[in-house]
Amino acid sequence: MKEARVMIVGFGVVGEGVAEVLDSKKKQLEKLGVKLSLVAVCEKDGCIVDEKGIGVSELLKLKKAGELQKHSGWKKKMRSVDAIREVDCDIVVEVTPTNVESGEPGLTHIATALDSKKHVVTSNKGPLALKFSELVEKAEKNNVELKYEATVCGGMPVFNMVENALASNEIKSIKGILNGTTNFILSRMHETGVTFEVALKEAKEMGIAEEKPDYDVKGIDAAAKITILANALMGRKLAYKDVKRVGIEEIIPEGIALAKKSGFAIKLIGEITGDKASVSPQLIPLGHPLNVGGTLNALMLETDLAKEVIVIGRGAGKIETASAIISDVLEIVKSRK
Amino acid sequence: MKEARVMIVGFGVVGEGVAEVLDSKKKQLEKLGVKLSLVAVCEKDGCIVDEKGIGVSELLKLKKAGELQKHSGWKKKMRSVDAIREVDCDIVVEVTPTNVESGEPGLTHIATALDSKKHVVTSNKGPLALKFSELVEKAEKNNVELKYEATVCGGMPVFNMVENALASNEIKSIKGILNGTTNFILSRMHETGVTFEVALKEAKEMGIAEEKPDYDVKGIDAAAKITILANALMGRKLAYKDVKRVGIEEIIPEGIALAKKSGFAIKLIGEITGDKASVSPQLIPLGHPLNVGGTLNALMLETDLAKEVIVIGRGAGKIETASAIISDVLEIVKSRK
After folding, report:
1. Disulfide engineering: B154 pairs with which of A64, B14, B67, B321, CB 3.0-4.6 Å?
2. pTM for this entry
3. What's the pLDDT at B204?
């Protein structure tokens, strides 16, 4: 049995999903020969630390009641960076919200964890979209792993798929729908002929778009993902600001209708070909495998040996993202001697 | 650098592809810290053995000229089973043609290799569709690995994807297009309105269908794949003969036209739900991600955490299949201590 102690930094929706899966998959993980224990959970206003292992059901109950501070392991004044440095653990799961301007607080958390010789698994796009090479080098220097399957399309295996199942393949180009919110809006416009504003309103009502939707509709989220894909899968030294970016706010029903009449749908496509990386609306033939509807994501990899490989799946969601994080954690544990 | 000695059993199209990729990817593999050397190649009428490593370019030249027997390492009377037993090597790549009735000669090759404590990588569906549990148990007993990514849709990562990228997910159902030849025929019928016979003739002319097309059009190939998927991904003790199977020969243009008018395409679908496994023509909505055209394959996995994940890619092809085999070889080499 391989054992590993895990710490969760950022206890929002994703962090909660990770704790839930650690609990619900306990037996299945033990069958795979892996025993994971949760030794710390960090929030903005304090941390819970218990190096003997935090009971997940009690933790989730307190979280739901908004009473984490009542936990016996609660340390009010402990900051996340200090916990990352001081708590005896193997893997830091960094799941604070993405900020593509500063990368913080994730950037400091991840750098601190790597410098403390702790493996890192993250769903946070900001630090990787801004400082990919620096963080990868820091991981190598400290002889620990940095894994980020959950940063690009949570429910879709991308990085681990290429690393393992497409090992020895060279990725020649990448093209895909990388944001579920904009895909939902464009799919509704395509199906019903409504305006962008109406489709956005609907998406907000369904909880698919946030109140301030810029991050999605301006293509910021997709551009951060394209940056990570370019660096991780194609070895490009690309920064987030290098991605040419056009959002979907200017798309009008007449444009969609004209495309539809000609056998196309308009999709927000992230693409890396040659030296260029972009996120912009593109015409996709109706019968094309990338032309998926609803909130689905789709990614087409052109490879030298396996040729084109397309993966379609859920881009986000609490448990889908937790699934990606757990697969990264398992990869790290399995590869440890 | 991790080193491994590889032997190829069956030197047809797939075997040749494996040798080509071993050669063309040599540097890239060394970058990944892996050095593979080819120490034996077995054919029906003899084997080439050179434990110092067979030069691939010379080998391919002789193969193309039909003069393998001129190789300095040629052993005319050596049978494959003897070579598998006697040649000092780590991994046996078994790529003889599939026979779903007897599983031979692959079944004997694979069993012999496992009993000789050699790892096995295969593209041969027969042995696994007939004796999955027995072979897996034999591998476990001998403490070696049996990998078979190339048996199901060569260019599409399936088993390694689930094992690594979807680790900890439970697969609840599987549904997909698992045969490129029949998908080509049905796609042509859908697009142009021709009969099955005309589309089949076209497929033969293009080298997509074989002269005796039963294996594909009767769903035999897809049923063998469904058997392997059910055993490997869902732990079902299913044998090839348990799969309910209907081919595509009875499909008439009128049926396709009616489906099309109602927004569907007819596709040959392999499916595992509950206790049932089948291969049969099904109506798939035109906008559905499984509705891929040409010779493409598509597989939808319903999982508990990541929800539905769809992979689309090339089902067969020399280099695509070799890509799957090399990814298996690398998984074995990487996991060796």
Report:
1. B321
2. 0.90
3. 95
Same domain, A145 and A253: no
User: Which position among A141, A225, A276, A307 bears the catalytic label?
Assistant: A225
Vertex A314 angle, CA B275 and B162, to 5°: 50
Which residues partner with A5 through β-bridges? A37
Interface pTM, i.e. ipTM: 0.87
User: Can you give the residue range of the structural domain that contains A39?
Assistant: 2-155+318-335
Q: What is the distance between the alpha carbons of residues B217 and A241, in angstroms, rounded to a whole number?
A: 51
Summarize chain A as % helix, strand, coil (round to 5).
45, 25, 35
| Cross-chain residue pair A309–B308, CB shorter than 8 Å | no
Return the C-alpha torsion angle A18, A23, A28, A29, nearest 10.
60
Mean pLDDT of A68-97: 96
Q: Which residues pair with A120 in a beta bridge?
A: A92, A146
Cα–Cα dist A263/A257, whole Å: 10
Chain A closest CA to B234's CA: distance in Å? 14
CA angle A287, B181, B136 (to 5 degrees): 110
Active-site residue flag, B75: no
Identify the CATH number of the domain in which residue B284 sits. Answer: 3.30.360.10
Contacts of B160 in chain A (CB under 8 A): 161, 164-165
Size of interface A-B (CB pairs under 8 A): 158
